[in-house]
Specification:
The protein is mainly alpha-helical. The protein has two domains: 99 residues, Rna Polymerase Sigma Factor, Chain: A (Orthogonal Bundle); 81 residues, Winged helix-like DNA-binding domain superfamily/Winged helix DNA-binding domain (Arc Repressor Mutant, subunit A, Orthogonal Bundle), CATH 1.10.10.10.
Length: 228
């Protein structure tokens, strides 16, 4: 063994910071949209009106697509939801205009805002007046009638360990969020509204809860591979 002073060799990475790719060149139509919406006066007002009409068509499309799942809603209710979604989408598009990078046409990019807003509002309306279950309604959701006796025994063992880990490992808030979202199927938008928090905060809580459960079940030697 060498008794000389230890030497440290520092290897410089090929590129310490990956360069951010420049925005894609805008197509003529997208460039016209962005310029008009950033403009002033009647030109901007006209562009906003055209954008609102586009977003209203998009939200009506999404409402019509999801209508069979909401038979209790009347036509007037659906029209109101579409109009509200278009209005909120318009505000979001104008607020995030600088985020448009040209990866798609501007109209395609803006269209998605209306689809998202309509979907969120329909989910919230579907749960309006319903109690949000924060305790397990049924653990049988994990059962499989097609599983053989051996597979069902393994599943039962894992389910028992999972229920125990949820009760003993998670904080009360993590437990409520995990059970509501992953077990009882509450839409995250609905849960965020009922708990007075944000989607991002709930995603973080759900991620932390799942990590805790995986660690605990792995410690017990159980297979916790998530199905995709």
């Amino acid at each position: 063994m060498s008794t000389g002073a230890a030497s440290v060799r520092v290897v410089e990475p090929a590129s310490a910071v990956s360069p951010i790719p420049p925005p894609a060149p805008l197509d003529p139509d997208s460039r016209e949209w962005v310029a008009a919406l950033r403009g002033e006066g009647s030109k901007r007002d006209e562009a906003i009106a055209r954008l609102h009409a586009l977003l209203l068509r998009a939200s009506r499309f999404e409402v019509a697509r999801r209508r069979p799942t909401l038979p209790h809603l009347r036509g007037g209710d659906l029209d109101d939801i579409a109009a509200q979604a278009a209005g909120d989408a318009l505000v979001s598009v104008l607020r995030r205009l600088d985020d448009f990078r040209g990866a798609s046409r501007f109209t395609t990019w803006a269209y998605k805002f209306a689809l998202y807003e309509a979907a969120v509002k329909l989910r919230k309306r579907a749960w309006q007046g319903r109690e949000v279950p924060l305790e397990p309604e049924s653990w049988s959701v994990f059962s499989s009638a097609s599983a053989g006796p051996e597979a069902e025994a393994e599943r039962s063992e894992l389910l028992a360990a999972l229920r125990s880990a949820i009760d003993e490992t998670l904080t009360p808030h993590q437990r409520r969020v995990l059970v509501a979202l992953a077990v009882n199927g509450v839409p995250i938008d609905v849960l965020a509204e009922r708990l007075g928090t944000s989607r991002g905060a709930l995603y973080k809580t759900l991620h932390d809860a799942r990590r805790k459960l995986r660690d605990e079940l792995s410690r017990q030697g159980l297979d916790v591979t998530e199905e995709r």
